[in-house]
Amino acid sequence: MASLTAADLEDTRRPFAAARTLPAAAYTAPDILAVEQAGLFGRTWLCAGRAADIPAAGDFLVCDIAGDSVLVIRGADGMVRAFFNVCRHRGSRLIDQASGHGLNRILCPYHAWSYRLDGSLAQLPRADDGANRDGLGLVPVSLGLRDGFIFLNLDSGAAPLATQLADLPDLSRFRLAELRCGWRHIYNVQANWKLVCENYSECYHCPGAHPQLARISDLISRSSRPMETGDCFNGGPMQLKDGIETMSLSGQRSVPLIPGLSADDHRYVYYYVIYPNLLLSPHPDYVLTHTAWPIAPDHTRVVCELLFTQEALDRPGFDPADMADFWDLTNRQDWALCERAQLGARSRGYRPGPYQAAEDCVHTFDRWYADRLAALL
Question: 109-167: per-residue pLDDT in tens?
């Protein structure tokens, strides 16, 4: 018997004022994680990286999704494709590295079957010239591109990426496809992936937990800029305080503004949870991203990146430290809180509690999750 039923999620699915937070098992039960991996992460478009990170033929990255390893590689024709990282001979893992450059072919370490960059079978060692190679190419994984981000879906029958992201706000003014990674860090958080997303979705905790953030960003009211929400996301803006130019330890910009933004955009930072696990934060001068990947009920791998314009990266002495150190400090403060919440969810004393006024985005995320989990149970 599953540790949760659809009925256990009804309190979370209620309207905001009457709703209660998720049951403990949603954060702690291995069987619920298994349901999430098979029915949510295994059947949803997930952000797996940036096309700019594999710019040339033979450049690749490897992603672990819902227990599967996926190889994403740019072909000789410039196309980005994805394949299960599995040889068609006897199922050997093909590539172990997380990323790399300049492959001429994909070679199986076991029996040396090789594949072209488009996934087609190139060579079978010691096979005669009449060997039948038809139907022995690598198994493809559905891939879509949006604003320079690579999305993958393990479900071969999935609707197109554009369908899932149909109501995502138009963020083209931030030139996302043109931006390049200038800083990247991977965190291992001893907490459930949903706690990471919930923490990102509210600043009720910020005055006490993030003094460096409270100094530069208005945490009090969002009344003039209400929450934005749709089928695939929720979030909204927070205003920078007077005299503050960006989110950094100094609060002052050290890189150029993203060209073409309005004066209004220069005063705000936007925070969007794109379901299930992409956290996207456009700033006036850079873009912050997190992706949260469940490893265990109490273990999440979080990949954090700062994306900059090429102009910023090309400046002599480019140094992202003012921004990177700010977000690294903020991240670590957040992960410590998430880990405290994970410990609490394991307690016999845990009871689902009410949402506070500043947690409308948390409830929106939890209700989205509860609706989908209920349909899977």
Answer: 999 999 999 999 998 887 665 666 778 999 999 999 999 999 999 999 999 999 999 99
What residues have CB less than 8 Å from 300, skipping those under 6 apart? 188, 189, 191, 192, 193, 195, 196, 292, 293, 294
Q: Is residue 32 part of a domain?
A: yes
Query: What's the whole-number average pLDDT of the chain?
Result: 95
Q: Which residue segment(s) compose the domain that 360 sits in?
A: 6-43+172-376
Is there a single domain that holds both residue 78 and residue 25? no
Residue type for 327, please?
W
Query: For residue 329, is pLDDT > 60?
Result: yes
My answer on whether 203 and 325 are in the same domain is: yes
What CA–CA distances, in Å, run from 298 to 46, 255, 268, 280, 302?
A: 20, 37, 33, 23, 13
Q: Please check whether residue 330 is in contact with residue 210, taking contact to mean a CB–CB distance below 8 angstroms.
A: yes
